[in-house]
Amino acid sequence: QENYIRSEEEQGQTAVLVGDLSGLWGVISIADQVRDDSKKLITNLKRLGVEKIVMLSGDNKRVAKAIANELGIDDHYGELLPEGKVKVLGELQEKHGMAAMVGDGVNDAPALASADLGIAIGGAGTDVAMETADVVLMSDEIRKLSHAIGLSRATVRNMKQNIYFALLVAATLLTGVLFKTVNLSFGMLVHELSVLLVVINAIRLLGYGDRGKSKKQVAL
User: Global pTM?
Assistant: First the structure.
């Protein structure tokens, strides 16, 4: 039976022994259902430049290894209690710098609080996890994580574009005023037009992921 149990665990299943005082009746193998979009999420995260993806699990080590291999996760840790997840997360932060933690259960709450960025999966998450996390995805579709990362990066790029453009317009108008090549009415018109362009550029984020290049980048 030990060899059978070990074999089942290596395949990502947990063996449950059934019997009574008279002896063993049999073994039932159970396993967590890996989400259909989980592997796509890992692919998207690597495409977005996430350097290292690590799974912290409370399951036994053989089950954790099987799931990590199936999903293409870089590293894995099994049989971790909540404090164990915090410890491993601290080691990863020391080795790799900033680290984000994604979780949805009570056992994930301490690690979510210790991470540089805690992300809770809201649709399937517990209240404790959502209250502890810095970011809550209000959906149980885990693939939305890569969308959130892509959108946040697009937002930062958009902000930089708007700031650089506003500074360029302001510097140009100031130079024109100092050298008396720009009159007041024309300067005000250019300034208002530049504000309108900044607003239009920011509005583009509302369509992120719905069409064109953004959709291809996130690959949902």
Answer: 0.75
Total count of residues recorded for the chain: 220
CA atoms of 100 and 92, how far apart (whole Å):
10
Instruction: Tell me if 159 sits within 8 A of 140, measured CB to CB.
Output: no
Mean pLDDT of the chain: 88
Residue with tokens 């959709």, as numbered in its chain? 215
| pLDDT tens, residue by residue, 10-22 | 787 888 889 998 8
Model pLDDT, residue 33: 79
38-142 falls under which CATH superfamily? HAD superfamily/HAD-like (3.40.50.1000)
Distances (CA, A) of 50 to 40, 70, 118: 14, 19, 15
**DSSP string covering 153-182, please?**
HHHHHHHHHHHHHHHHHHHHHHHHHHTT-S
Which strands form 100-103's sheet, in the order they lie side by side?
100-103, 117-121, 135-137
Strands (E) in the chain, as ranges, are: 14-20, 23-30, 54-56, 75-77, 100-103, 117-121, 135-137
Q: How far is CA 185 from the centre of its chain?
A: 48
Residue 213 confidence class, pLDDT cut points 50, 70, 90: very low
